[in-house]
Amino acid sequence: MFDVGAxxxxxxxxxxxxxxxxxxLPLALRTAGRWIGKIRRVSGHFRSGIETMIREAxxxxxxxxxxxxNAAIMKAHPDVPADADxxxxxxxxxxxxxxxxxxxxxxxxxxxxxxHTPPAAPTQP
Length: 125
Known about the structure:
The protein is mostly helical. It has three helices and no strands.
């Protein structure tokens, strides 16, 4: 931001020693350092506030776009039930009448709790 070369810095130091004096120069530099620190803190706080406002505005814009896209998707596919399996295509769920129901499994009455059937008894010829 400020381009201060070595010769310009030397001139500032010489003027400061002449105007302030070598006795009061450390106190003046300490005071200047405190003021610079305060200015940096205030500017950092201001910058973070601006960045937060920008992030919130971007999030609001993204949420608005997501709501619009969601509404368009819901309009395009109104007949999909809410409890449908997303991995299963919609066309296959329309033909679900040809498939057996998930809880109607062909298990014999003598099956144990794990679904295993006991081995068949040997038959006599």
